[in-house]
Amino acid sequence: MYLLFDETKECVIIDPGCYDDKERAILSKFISDNALKPVKLLNTHCHLDHIFGNRFVAEKYDLKLEINKKDLPVLDSFKKTCDLYGMNCDPSPQPSVYLEEGDIIEFGNSTLEILFTPGHSPGSITFYNTEQKFMIAGDVLFYGSIGRTDLPGGSHETLINNIKTKLFPLGDDFKVYSGHGQMTTIGFEKKNNPFLT
Q1: For the domain 2-192, what is the CATH superfamily, name and number?
Q2: pTM surpassing 0.90?
Q3: pLDDT in tens, 105-132
Q4: At residue 165, what are phi and psi to the nearest 5 degrees?
């Protein structure tokens, strides 16, 4: 999960993976301690580990879910997937806003732009900020790795193509914040990622 905010205290919550009450309490306390005002609930994609907290966040902060429409089948399979793994999950709310490449997310004095980067899931999107040179890439690109492509709607060729044609052109100094693992940069991944070299 990522929570982004600026001096206005408005914030966006991206991929709330908070699964249990303890993790939800950590999120709530951070927001309260920093006097933040959540204004957006965004998903890079809708695999279960990125949306466990969707309902909690939506209800607690009165937010509407925003995703790319092509990930709606993934969102709709959430309960079935949880049942398959024997997990107790609060059903996610349905999206009220569908995000497309080129859309701009505004909060406080900040903006995020959107790239459509499927391959890990059919509706994966990447949020990025050109001025501060960072991206929230979901499970598209990791430090030394890439998102798995063997899940329904995945495509290895599509994922590699999107990384090279959409993420790489942003610049070597762009920081990549992934859904799992440590931060990396585009330049590092160009030189060292075995899936991309």
Answers
A1: Ribonuclease Z/Hydroxyacylglutathione hydrolase-like (3.60.15.10)
A2: yes
A3: 999 999 999 999 999 999 999 999 999 9
A4: -95, -20
